[in-house]
Amino acid sequence: MKNLGQVLEYYALKYPEKVAIRFLARGEDETDSITYLQLKQQSHAIATQLLTQYKRGDTALLIFDASIDVVVTFWGCVYAGIIAVPIPIPNGNKGMDNVAHIVEDAEISLIISHTSVESRLSKKFKENIQLKRLDWLIVNKKNFKENIFLDKDVFSSNQLLLLQYTSGSTNKPKGVKVSHQNMIAHQEGLKEAFYSDENSVVVSWLPYYHDMGLIGKIIHATFCGATLILMPPIAFVQNPFRWLQAISKYQGTNSAAPNFAYEDCLRNITNEQLSQLNLSSWKVAWNAAEPIHANTVVNFCNRFSQCGFNPQSLTTAYGMAESTLAISVADIKSKLKLLAIDENEFKQGNIKVIKELFIDSNLEEISQYKKVVVDCGNCISNHQIKIVDPKNRLLCSDYKIGEVWFSGKSVANGYWKKETLSQSTFFATIQNNNNSETYLRTEDMGFMDKNKNLFIVGRHKDMIIIHGENYAPQDLEFSIFNSHEAFVESGCSAFSVMSQGKEKVVIVQEIKRTQRKKVDFEKLLSHVKNILSQEYQLQLFALVFIHQANLPKTTSGKVQRKLCKHLFINEEFSPLYSWVPQQLDEQQLLNEKVSEQNLHIESSSNQLSYEKLIHWLEEWIQKTIPAIESFEKSSNFSSYGMDSKTTALMAYDLESYIGYELDPTLCWNYPNPDTLINHLIDEIKTNQLIPLKGNLK
């Protein structure tokens, strides 16, 4: 197989009437579907349109609301030889800056999208000199001709397939160059690791612009001839039950999510909802894309085994965009391993296993140990993982901490237009090694056990080193954000700064909206000091408490520690409370050159009067964001500190109140209470809204 397009051709011929994708617009009922033959035909139509104006090797931005159309468009780009560049719909000035950067960096020729997205973005795009020049190709499958003949060239396997822009920790996004060869080699590895085949049913709410959603779900389902059950990410955010409900309803076999999603299910799904689920079909439940916590996987297995979930189905994976997606995957035919390790040895860069535990171990037994690491599995087939000392580039022995290096055909071809950085990142060599193999440097620190299972312990550049001892920042963060009801879960960043010639620990922690006016910050300061002192024997240098949803994170939810450090050093946080008793070293201030990036912060009409709806909004906002001084119906939602997730949750609660379905992105076009309510009143009066079906929350 030379290129990815041959995969779709094969399954369209073999299973023309088989459903390739079922789409659940609200995460519940099926609203759209497409067969393998229709997917091929509609993709051909897109490719034909593209080739009338553009040539192979041109680059196209894919900007969509979640839908089947974005999948058709991706395959259309595959057939046309157009390099797809999937990105999220930009939100705010920072989002627009990132789009402008990508357009310039990737030399974008056109944007492919929906009419609704174009109308939301057109004004902002026209204000930007780089964006207003771009052509838009609007996808409307009603206009697709199903019997178009496409003269299909067989591309070289080295042909670029897509540019996957990484969120980056501090710098502007970088485009990872993924070829057809990279993707095919990777999909073969995933297929073997997940035991995927034509009978698989893949369920996903992950975004199309993230490698785990696009490569691990959308492309993977088609590569295996499987059926994909797809819903928008916001459907999960509004109600996590929808994810597991879809797995239960459609007998899903393969579904994945980051650790926070499993936590959300534990926190938000009620016992009543639990009784409606049958998760016995779920054979591969993978946890990836962010640090995996032992407590999460054990708690999830314990609770959801009540509705047929097999704990052995829960697996883990580790990877990154630079490796196309996965580097290692834990085998579901073996129980997931957890290692309790000696904390003192870890500080010296060594691993001493105190106790080998498993996913079905007793939670009380696991909690006895200070540091427990989760198995990330073996290397995907036909690839290699090496653990290397990042200083001298020598191989590390088993149970010795070093940097994770990866080689094989899945390793991408480098960063777009960044030759020097690509050479040092993608083509590293091991000292005193006889072969000429080159490796991808992940910058992640980990170790291998005697069975060559990989365990990740932190980022090389994020590692905190105090008095020569290593501390993984995610360990400190986990201890802190779980220690008090006022702290936002996964809303903590730990990093080190230099003061008086020594590394010192800084903590930045989000405070829940409901707790801002209740807490005593001085007591919380003492609390954080005690956590660091008692659990890690570390002294706190500085503490910053910030508003919920203000901690810099990537699009995949990873904490941007370098950016946090930059904001702290330059006093650019807007703190609720700040404690910095000593000065930073002046040299550090002079050398601080890290550039700032986007803070990922992505009934009837006579009964529903304007006054009632405005009153409902006022009560909802004041309840959700207690810190606001006053409510003004003409003030933008953003002025209340409401991000896109908060406005989506508000739309979800509002639709339950009024009894009509609402678009989660409604506040994009109606950015304040007054315009929003006037719009809703007009829509209700003219019968434009769809009545809300009964659903269990």
TrEMBL record:
Residue limits of the AMP-binding enzyme C-terminal domain?
462-573
Stored Pfam families: AMP-binding, AMP-dom_DIP2-like, PP-binding
From its record, what is one biological process in GO terms? Actinobacterium-type cell wall biogenesis
Q: Which GO terms describe its molecular function?
A: adenylyltransferase activity; ligase activity
What does UniProt give as GO cellular component?
plasma membrane
The record, for SUPFAM superfamilies, names: Acetyl-CoA synthetase-like, ACP-like
Instruction: For this UniProt record, give its keywords in alphabetical order, as a comma-separated list.
Output: Fatty acid metabolism, Ligase, Lipid metabolism
Boundaries of every Carrier domain copy = 628-680
- Keyword Nucleotidyltransferase tagged: no
Q: Which residues form the AMP-dependent synthetase/ligase domain?
A: 10-416
Q: According to its UniProt record, which protein family does this protein belong to?
A: Belongs to the ATP-dependent AMP-binding enzyme family.
Q: Which PANTHER family match?
A: DISCO-INTERACTING PROTEIN 2 (PTHR22754:SF32), DISCO-INTERACTING PROTEIN 2 DIP2 -RELATED (PTHR22754)
Q: What is this protein called?
A: AMP-dependent synthetase and ligase
Q: What is the lineage of its organism?
A: Bacteria, Pseudomonadati, Campylobacterota, Epsilonproteobacteria, Campylobacterales
